[in-house]
Amino acid sequence: xxxxxxxxxxxxxxxPGRSLWQDARRRIRQNPVAMTSFLALVLIxxxxxxxxxxxxxxxxxxxxxxxGNVETAGRxxxxxxxYFGTDQLGRDLFVRTAHGxxxxxxxxxxxxxIAIVVGTLYGTIAGYVGGRTDNIMMRTVDVxxxxxxxFVLIILLVIFGQSMILLFVGIGLVSWLDMAxxxxxQTLSIKNREFVESAVVIGVPPALxxxxxxxxxxxxxxxxxxxLLIPNMIIFESFISFLGLGIQEPNTSLGVLISEGAxxxxxxxxxxxxxxxxxxxxxxxxxxxxxxxxxDALDPKDRH
Amino acid sequence: MxxxxxxxxxTVEFSLRGGPVPGSPSRDRFAALEGVSLELAExxxxxxxxxxxxxxxxxxxxxxxxxPIQKGxxxxxxxxxxxxxxxxxxxxxxxxxxxxxxxxxxxxxRMTIGQIIAEPCQVHExxxxxxxxxxxxxxxxxxxxxxxxxxxxxxxxxxGGQCQRVGIARALIGRxxxxxxxxxxxxxxxxxxxxxxxLLKQLQDEFGISLIMISHDLSVIRHVSHRIMVMYLGHxxxxxxSGHLLQNSCHPYTRxxxxxxxxPDPSIQKAREMRTIKGExxxxxxxxxxxxxxxxCPIARDRCGDSRPAxxxxxxGHWLACPYCxxxxxxxxx
Lengths: 304, 334
Ligand SMILES: Nc1ncnc2c1ncn2[C@@H]1O[C@H](COP(=O)(O)OP(=O)(O)OP(=O)(O)O)[C@@H](O)[C@H]1O
Ligand code: SF4
Ligand SMILES: [Mg+2]
Prior knowledge:
The structure holds two protein chains of two kinds.
Chain A: H1 20-29, H2 32-50, H3 70-73, H4 93-129, H5 131-146, H6 149-160, H7 164-191, H8 194-202, H9 206-242, H10 254-263, H11 271-298
Chain B: E1 3-15, E2 29-41, E3 45-49, H1 56-63, E4 71-76, E5 79-80, H2 86-95, E6 96-99, H3 113-124, H4 130-143, H5 160-172, E7 178-182, H6 190-207, E8 210-214, H7 218-224, E9 227-232, E10 235-241, H8 245-248, H9 252-260, E11 312-315, E12 318-320
Parallel strand pairs in B: 3-8, 3-9, 6-7, 7-8
Antiparallel strand pairs in B: 1-2, 1-4, 4-5, 9-10, 10-12, 11-12
Helix pairs in contact in B: 3-4, 3-5, 4-5, 5-6
C-alpha cells in the first residue's frame, strides 16, 4: 500500500497552473482588432445605458419649436441640446438612438442566451445519448428549421397584433436551432476522445461526464457562436421592424430608427438615417470581429 | 494461484456500418473477436501482441464493459460480470483501471492534474474528505515520479512522458487489482519508453497488481509479461510463458512476428515497430474461413481452410492453435 508519510501540512506549495482559459485571455489581449471591437462595444453599451442622462430630453418628449421645421431647426447641434438632431416628430434623436441601441442589444443578447441555454442542453443530450434519441431530436430540429419561420412570425404578428413578447417568442424559437446542431456535432467528436473514454472506464456517471468532461470543452465553441449570433438576432429584429411589425411606439430599436430615417431621406434629414445606421454597423462589425478574435484565441492552431 | 479474471469464449461483433449494434441481422455484422478465452492470475502480467486490427483493443474494452459481448462470459473473481447488477459492476470497476495509448488525449485539457488524478477517488469513495483525497493525490503523484507541487498544472504544460505518469497515477489511486495498458508507450519518445515500462513493472511488484499489456513491440512485451498471448484477426493463435517465446513458440504467425523484429540488444533497449508479415492482411470484415492465418501462412495446407483449429495445450502453460506447425526447436521431448 502507498505509505502515508506525506501529510497535508508537509506538502510543498503547489505551483500555479496556466489553464487554457488564461492562455486564451492572454492571446486575445494581444489581438488589436478584437480588443478595438470589444472597446467599441463597451462604449456603445455605456452610451445605451448612460446616454439619456447627458440629455435634457426624454425619448418621448416632443420639441414643439422644431416640429414642422425639422430640416433646419432639428439639425444635430450642441447648442440646441439635440446632439444627434431630432426625428420627424421633433423628438431628440440622441436619446432615441440610445434607447434603440438598448432594445436592439437586449434582443440580441436574449436571443443568444436562449440559444446558449436551450441549444447547448439540447445538443449535448442528443450528441451524448446518441442512437435513436439523437435521431429523433435532430430530425425535430430539421423539421422546425424547414418551417419558413419569418413567414410564420409575420402571420402571428398580424393576427395577434404587434407585441414585444411575441417578437421574443419568435426569436427564441429560431435562435437555438443552429446552436443545437453545432453543439451536437462537437459533443459527438468530444465523446470519442480518449479522456471521455477514460472517464467511462472509471465509472463516472453520465450526468457528471457531460458536466465535467463535455461541457467545459464545448464552452469555447458556444461563446464564439453566441457572439456571432447576437448581430444575427439584431438583424432579424431589424428586418421585422423594418417591415413595421416589430418593436412599436413609443419603444424603438435600431431597426425602427433606420426604417424611419430611410423613409425621410428625400427631405434632407440624412442624420435621421446616419446615426442609427452608424451604431448598427459598428455593433455588427464589433461582434463579428470579437467573435472571430475569441475563436482565434481559443484555437491558436487555426490561425494562419 | 486463483484466477482474478477469466474470459471465457468471448465473441464481440460490430455492425458493418460501425458501432456495436446487438440487434442487427447477422449479415450486417462481423466478429472483431471470436471465441477468445484467457485467464489472468493475481499479480500476473499478460502481454497481448498482434498486428493492427487483430482485436486487442476490442478485447480489453470488452473486459472493462465498454463494448457489449455477443457470446461468452467475463468472470471477475468468480462472478459473471454480465450477470451482475450495475451497483456491483461499479464496485468491480473500482478494481480495474486503464491506461491509454495517447497520454495527452486521455487527459481532459480543462482539468488540472490534481483533479484528473482525484477523479476515481471521488467517484468510488464519495465519503472521502477533501484533505484525504488531496493527500492521496500527492502520494500517488510522488510514487509515479511527479512532483506533488505540480497538482495545479494543466496537461498541456506537460511532456508526453509526464502525461503518461499522470495517466498511471489516475489508474493507480483507486488501488485497483488490475490495470489494463493499451499500448502505453507507443506514442512516447523511444528514450522515455523504458522509464514508463519499468515504472509499471515496479508498481506491479509493489502493489501486487495484475497487468494486461498490449503492445506492438515484442521486446517491451517480453520484458514485462509473464505470459504472452498472440492474436490475429480476432482469434487467439498462441499463448505461452514469455520466457519460452523465442525458444518454444511454434505457431507460424508467432514465428513470423519474432522474425520480423530482430530482438534488440537489451542494453540498447531500442524498440522498433513490428514489420508486417508477407502478404496482405485480410479484412476483418471478410476473414478467411478455417484458420485465419491461411492466406499468409508459409506452411498452410488445404485442410487449414476447413475448420478453425482448436487452441490446444502443447506443453506446460503453452496453448497453440495450429495442428501442423513443426515442434519448436527448443521444445523438450518427452
Ligand atoms: N466501435 C467499433 N465499431 C466498428 N468496428 C470496430 C469498432 N471498434 C473496432 N472495430 C473494428 O474491429 C477490428 C479490431 O479493432 P481493434 O481496435 O480491437 O484492433 P487492435 O488490435 O487494437 O488494433 P491496433 O493495433 O491498431 O490498435 C478492426 O477491424 C476495427 O475496425
Ligand atoms: S492451421 Fe494451417 S494455416 Fe493456420 S497456422 Fe497452422 S498451418 Fe498455418
Ligand atoms: Mg488498439
